[in-house]
Amino acid sequence: MKLAIREIRAGLRSGQFSARELASRALAHAGAENPKTNAYLHLTPERALAAADAVDAQLARGEDPGPLAGVPIAVKDVILTKDIRTTCGSRLLEHYVAPYDATAIMRVEQAGAVIVGKTNCDEFAMGSSNENSAFGPVRNPVDLERVPGGSSGGSAAVVAQGTAVVSLGSDTGGSIRQPASFCGIVGVTPTYGRVSRYGLTAFASSLDHIGPFGGSVHDAAAVLEAIAGRDPMDATSAFAPVPSYTAGLTGDVRGMRIGLPKEYFAGLASETGDLIARGVDTLRRLGCEVHEVSLPHTEYAIPCYYVICTAEASSNLARYDGVRYTSRSANGETLIDMYRNTRGEGFGAECKRRIMLGTYVLSAGYYDAYYIKAQRVRTLIARDFSNAFQQVDAIIAPVSPFPAFKLGEKLDDPMQMYLSDIYTITGSLAGIPCMSVPCGATAAGLPVGMQILCNHFEEAAMFRLAHAFENSGDT
Amino acid sequence: MSPGTLDKYEPVIGLEVHVQLATRTKIFCACPTGFGAPPNTNVCPVCLGLPGALPVLNRRVVEMAVQGALALNCQVRGESIFARKNYFYPDLPKGYQISQYDRPLAEHGHVDILLDDGGSKRIGVTRVHLEDDAGKSMHEGFRDSDRYTYVDLNRTGTPLIEIVSEPDIRSSSEAYAYLTELKLLMQFCGVSTCDMEKGHLRCDANVSVRLRGAEKFGTKAEVKNLNSFRFLKQALDYEIVRQVELIESGGRVVQETRLYNPAVGETFSMRSKEHAHDYRYFPEPDLLPLRIAPGWRAEIEAAMPELPPAKRARFISGFGLRPYDADVLTQTREMSEYFERAANASGDPRGAANWVMGDLAAALKADGKELADSPVSAEQLGELVALIAKGGISGKLAKEIFPKMWSTGESAAVIVEREGLRQISDTGAIEKIIAEVIAANPKQVDQYRGGKTAVIGFLVGQVMKASRGQANPQLVNDLMKKALG
User: Fold this and answer.
1) What domains, with CATH codes, occur in chain A?
2) What HEC string does B454-481 produce?
3) A88 to chain B: which residues are within 8 Å by CB?
4) Model ipTM?
5) CA–CA gap between residue B413 and residue B408 (Å, rounded)
6) Span B427-484 CATH architecture
7) Which of B28, B40, B41, B50 should be substituted to probe chain A, the one whose Cβ sees the most A Cβ atoms within 10 Å?
8) pLDDT digit string, tens, across residues B67-104
9) Largest CB tally within 10 Å, which of A357, B218, B285, B308?
10) Which residues of B touch A (CB under 8 A)?
């Protein structure tokens, strides 16, 4: 079922299919395909069919069922759904059912979308391969021997597989863009504050974003349009008005100034590098001006990111303590034992690693040397981007230094895994909108994404560029 | 230990006071702050610390906190930062408290306290910061309390301000006076009820002792659980003696947290410095910096009521009250406002003060009533005082009229009119009674004429009695003197 949102809209209008038929087909397809990829943790047939019936009823009454009417959407299992389990890929929340919907969930349903299932991910969104899920890894539908990327691996895989038309993921340091790149689809990390985080299980609050995956730039833009905007439940959500991203997809990017950060391309002699270079040629051909820009603090981005995100994570994950909703360890006689056993047995290795790192960097005597310094570096990295955006409208970068790797290939080397986040982390630290758009495949047929980064709240320009690129006929 | 030994040492005390703000809703969500609801009912995803929930700052909390800070003469920062204070405890559902750390709401304030000798002393206020309260752990009172602790999260997210004093306090009575004045200021602004029984005012103390004249502070102990004025004084007195005894016997005070046990009147060690928490404070990423624009600040300041120190000064200079009376009448905002209305209606502020502190206070106490529920309004009381001042009734009569006003809610004038209690100032009528009294008491008349002039009081009293208290006492006095020659 590789339908685009526009095709669904037309099909529903013409009566070619009903929303219920579409939802049933998506659910059946997902059920059949899932054993191959393990991309869904659970399907949500009741909720899907109820939403689909509501759309059909609205259509029957001649009402507008919304811009995402009948669109099967999958949701990363870190985004809360009322009365449906939200596990965060963790044993600790294996049975957790939230009593409320995330704002993004309410907004996609308000727009008529049909939630078909919750997708697998790295535990608490910590990972770059989806191998850190307590419920098993996700396999990349392009090549089942390979990872789909992470942490939103499931949300990327289901769109690539066609069991959902679009999906929601979350991105803290690349968790939407990198799996989008690995699976050959579009993945968008909006400006920090553009989409409410209310109902997104926090990993690193100052870096967490909800964003869409789609089979096309248009579909991703349509979803972002539905979920973006101020939310009184999230004090960090922005008041800036949300333009129509889809209406801005004119195909005309002539005169747009593109920046290539010299620090990113210096050591990128690989198939990925070649594909990005070809992508840049395409942009030139579309009428863009290409300039070299400099992001001089790039080399400090990884330590900076891993200090800030682990610090925040160590605090955010404290609530999973076995006292209330977390699965409690059966072992332990005292309160301290209960805490230790619950968390010791419940968290996977990567979460523990990050909790320990974060606890360390916030500790008395280390806070200034690590956390405060990292915040200063973060300011410098953000300044690098604002300087660059004085000269250019968009920055082009790789998403990942390499395409999808094999399961288990990098599992025992967390350092190498962290280092591969370099191209996505910088944009996250700056809080700017960034996305991955497919730019071809390696000789082995593995998809490679090209990253587009724009200035704060310039999603419209980012989508326009990505859309023009997507339709250039070169990819 | 001899008082002499104790006197060699000087206690150094700083107080950390938590004040619960009187908002209707919690600091970061819209749940009600009410007391006494069934456990775990005034809760939502935010105050339960559920995954994905985010705090949103309550505007009213900021306004009240700023008022509280201004009442403590603090400088309110244009920008303050919320910070997470991380620790594990079952009644702390997020695993951290949202507080403020290196950039608090307000700093550099002071409170002036009245000392026992009538002088005053200025106690510095280091800082005032905002934070959310934790829930309540209940270790007792359940069938299975031997195995389980119960947690009630209704209180979680209740807005607090923490007020930290400078180590300027030198005795338990100064601490008592500081807390008293602080409570008064908070109540006056309406930012807190400061009901200690409900935990709206909680106090911890940092206590050390040093030899008088020494410059360096001694090692301090933090004493917690001082949840009444009495406990505060008792605990400090105990702790001061404990530390002095320890030093005198060659020991050393260790830095630790101690808990006051009111049942035995002692403090005992709760945790040592080695086991102190590392709270790993860092800026709360879910909340933006709190900026208080000058315009908003001005609005908040404009809404501030007149505070006790200013009121006291005005009552003394404007109404001619004695300092003691001015102090008593500014113990609560309601009392001071009641008095002021009564004073204005009476034309005799000192008379009004006596009535408010005397008969009115006694009647309220006897009936267990709050001032707000007084059946006698301030204006009615003022009218009664005015009647005395203008000579319409005697003070003695007024004492009889007041209980009638209290029980009926009627004005003094209505009661006087109905019962024919108007003061007799008719010279002829009074002279007639005087003549009768003189005739009936020849012995006393002789005594008076023989030089024992004090006996006139008895004779005047007889006249007053005969007139059922209605005769104008001053007039009776004058006419009696004349009649006795």
Assistant:
1) 5-227 (3.90.1300.10)
2) HHHHHHHHHHHHHCCCCECHHHHHHHHH
3) 51
4) 0.95
5) 13
6) Orthogonal Bundle (1.10)
7) B50
8) 999 999 999 999 999 999 999 999 999 999 999 999 99
9) B308
10) 45, 48-57, 84, 86, 88, 90, 93-96, 151, 278, 280-282, 285-288
